[in-house]
Amino acid sequence: MALSSPSGRLAAGLRSFVAVGAVGFVIDAGLLAVLAHGAGWSPWLARVPSFLAAVTATWLLNRRLTFAGRGLQSRSLEAIGYGAIQVCGALINLAVFGFCLARFPQLAALPLIPFAAGAAVAMIFNYLAANRLLYVREREGRQQ
Question: Which range marks the domain in which residue 47 is found?
């Protein structure tokens, strides 16, 4: 499959998006652990800055690597759009996680399985939404 073909570009973009997502996961999990275990925050409260830090990092990396030269001229509008997509992805993640636990209660003993299922479905949604809604065209003018 040639990289210049639409399917080749989609596959390369998805690989980059997954790699950036892995960085975001490390940031999210690391900050969550530091705040919850190290600083004594509740896990729910710690999720707010950990999620925001991960979304900010992945937006900056995806903007530079996965979707370079595409998107909006306005960084603030692009950040809002990216954040909205990520919030939708987080809700999808939680919905799939909850569905798996409701449909297969035995997975409560293996929560990483529904966690991984939710993360996979949300990642696909996030990539397709970003690729088709936010980063749909080449940015005119200089790179920001």
Answer: 8-134
Contact 57, 83 (CB under 8 A): no
Q: Is the pTM of the predicted complex or chain greater than 0.70?
A: yes
Whether 139 is covered by a domain: the verdict is no
Is residue 129 situated within a structural domain?
Answer: yes
Residue 1 domain-assigned? no
Q: What is the total count of domains within the chain? A: 1
Q: Is residue 126 part of a domain?
A: yes
For the chain, what is the HEC assignment?
CCCCCHHHHHHHHHHHHHHHHHHHHHHHHHHHHHHHHHCCCCHHHHHHHHHHHHHHHHHHHHHHCCCCCECCCCHHHHHHHHHHHHHHHHHHHHHHHHHHHHHCHHHHHCCHHHHHHHHHHHHHHHHHHHHHHHCCCECCCCCC
pLDDT tens, residue by residue, 44-79: 899 999 999 999 999 999 999 999 989 888 999 999
